[in-house]
Amino acid sequence: MTSLPPLPAIHIRRALRPGDLGYIAHLHGQLYARECGYGLHFEGYVLAGLQEFAEQYDPAKDAVWICEHEGRMVGFLLGFHRADVLQLRYFIFEPAYRGLGLGKKLLQEFVAFMREKHYRKAYLWTTREQAAAIALYTRFGFQLTEEKTSVAFDKELVEQRYDLLLAA
Q: Which domains does the chain possess?
């Protein structure tokens, strides 16, 4: 078994660089195929969303948190502006980097960014299969607001929307 790096050895980068978004698509496609059985349509969905983000990226309204260890991306979270609402997307970690508190740290930074930029609302879409992530989202105050069955990722699943409303 490989020993996990201590949390201080992991750097959180806030600046987006060329190649980052392509790697996020690759990571999603690879991990979700292996862990959840998602097909090529899922990777296409991720690519389409990342293209939209790349075309509309505004550092004054959007944010990225990129976890790196020894110069390699091991985790990611993106906050994408949608008018006066912030969408949480692409929250992912390499398996060896889960359970270290990085998810909690990135969500704390996401909420701090919301407050700094005066967003009162945020939302995300996930699937019912993502139990660990959902538990973390709900600990931060996200509430389930919508469910729908889907075969969009080449298998039957339940997509879920979670919303967060910050107190004024």
A: 9-122 (3.40.630.30)
